[in-house]
Design brief:
The strands form two sheets. Strands 6-7-8-9-11-10 form a six-stranded mixed sheet. It is globular and about 55 Å long. The protein has 330 residues and is α/β, with parallel strands linked by helices. Helix 4 runs antiparallel to helix 5. It contains twelve helices and eleven strands.
C-alpha cells in the first residue's frame, strides 16, 4: 500500500472531470456519509460525480441518501477518469458491480479510508487512523478551503456520528469534534440526522431485539463476554433484515460488566462474526485476524467457515477465555 499525503489526494480529485465513488458492500453510516458527502462536494465544485451502490441500502438511510447508481457497465466505465473507493479496507468487500478490483487497479484508482490495515492496493491511497472516513473527508475539504454546502455537510456528519457512537467510542479524539464542528458550521442538519438515523426504529426491529436478548443471548467469562447467534428463524419471525444490523451489537456491548460483545450469523460463505470491545486491554482485532478477518482493535470481524454454530463456539470462545482469564495468548 502506498500511503500518499492528503495534498496529493486533493490534486487527484480536483484534476478529475468525472468521478465514480464506491464503498464497501452492506454500507453503514460512514460508508454512505462519505460517499454522498464527497459526491455533494465534488458536484458543488464543478466536478461530475456518481455514487455506485450495487445492493440495497439499509432502511434508515432510504430517502436520506438518494440518486445513486446500482450498476455501471464495462462500456460505461470509460465515462469516468477517476475511481474513488471510500471506507473500504479490502477488495473482497468493495461494491464495484460488474467490473473487478483488478480492473480498477489498471485505472486512475484512489482510496480514502480509516482502516489502518487497508489492503485495497489502489494507485493512490490516503489511510489514517481517524475516527471515520467522513472525518478525513471533512478535514480534506477544510484544507482545500472550498465550499461544501448543507447536503454534503449533513452526509459527512452522519458518518462521523455513526462511526464514533455519537462521539462515545474510543476512536473519538479532539480532531473528531473539530471535524464535526466544521460540518455543523457548514450547515449540517443535526435534527434530520437524529430523527432519520437514531430515532427511527421500526416496531418489528424492537421486538426482534427483545427476542434476541431474551432467548439467544449467552454470557461467558464471568459475564465479561456477551454473544448471540442471529438465526434465520429469528429474523423471519420478526421480518428483520440484516442490512439493519448497524448498532445492533451495541445492545450487548451496553450490558453492565461486559468487556467484549459478539454477534454471529450464518451466510453462504460461513458464519459472519462481528466483535466489539469496551476496553483497549482486550483488543478484538487479533482474534479476527486469526480467522482471516480484520478491523480495528476495538471493532473487528471475520468469517468462519464451519458447518454449525456449535463448531464456531468451540473455536471462537476459547480465544476470549484465554485473553480474559490470562490462561494463555492468541
Amino acid at each position: 500500500m502506498n500511503n500518499f499525503p492528503p495534498e496529493e489526494i486533493c490534486q487527484a480529485l480536483l484534476s478529475a472531470k468525472k468521478v465514480l465513488i464506491m464503498t464497501h458492500q452492506r454500507p453503514d453510516g460512514d460508508a454512505m456519509g462519505s460517499s454522498f458527502g464527497m459526491r455533494a462536494f465534488l458536484r458543488g465544485n464543478g466536478i461530475d460525480a456518481d455514487v455506485l451502490i450495487p445492493g440495497a441500502i439499509p432502511r434508515r438511510y432510504q430517502g436520506f441518501f438518494t440518486g445513486f447508481l446500482k450498476n455501471v457497465t464495462q462500456s460505461e466505465m470509460e465515462n469516468y477518469d477517476l475511481f474513488l473507493a471510500l471506507d473500504c479496507a479490502n477488495g473482497e468487500r468493495l461494491g464495484c458491480g460488474e467490473f473487478t478490483v483488478k480492473e480498477l487497479r489498471c485505472r486512475n484508482f484512489v482510496c480514502i479510508d480509516h482502516h489502518t490495515g487497508n489492503s485495497l492496493a489502489a494507485g493512490k491511497s490516503w489511510i489514517s487512523s481517524s475516527g471515520s472516513t467522513c472525518q478525513m473527508i471533512m478535514e480534506l475539504i477544510d484544507h482545500l478551503k472550498l465550499p461544501l454546502g448543507q447536503e454534503g455537510a449533513t452526509a459527512l456528519l452522519t458518518g462521523m456520528m455513526t462511526d464514533t457512537g455519537c462521539f462515545c467510542f474510543s476512536n473519538t479524539t479532539g480532531s473528531s469534534f473539530r471535524a464535526a464542528a466544521l460540518a455543523a458550521d457548514a450547515g449540517a442538519d443535526i435534527e434530520k440526522i437524529a430523527n432519520q438515523v437514531f430515532f427511527n426504529k421500526p416496531f418489528d426491529q424492537l421486538k426482534f431485539e427483545a427476542d434476541m436478548v431474551e432467548n439467544f443471548l449467552q454470557m461467558t467469562c464471568n459475564g465479561k463476554v456477551a454473544y448471540a447467534c442471529i438465526t434465520d428463524e429469528l429474523m423471519a419471525k420478526h421480518n428483520f433484515d440484516l442490512r439493519e444490523d448497524e448498532g445492533l451489537i451495541d445492545i450487548l456491548r451496553g450490558l453492565e460488566g461486559v468487556k467484549i460483545a459478539i454477534l454471529i450469523h450464518h451466510r453462504n460463505d460461513g458464519w459472519r462474526v462481528s466483535m466489539r470491545s469496551k476496553d483497549s486491554a482486550y483488543p478484538v482485532r487479533p482474534v479476527a485476524m486469526k480467522f482471516g478477518g480484520g478491523g480495528h482493535d476495538l471493532a473487528a470481524g471475520c468469517t468462519i467457515d464451519l458447518p454449525e454454530f456449535a463448531d464456531v463456539e468451540k473455536v471462537l470462545i476459547p480465544c476470549f477465555e484465554a485473553m480474559l482469564t490470562e490462561k494463555g495468548s492468541l
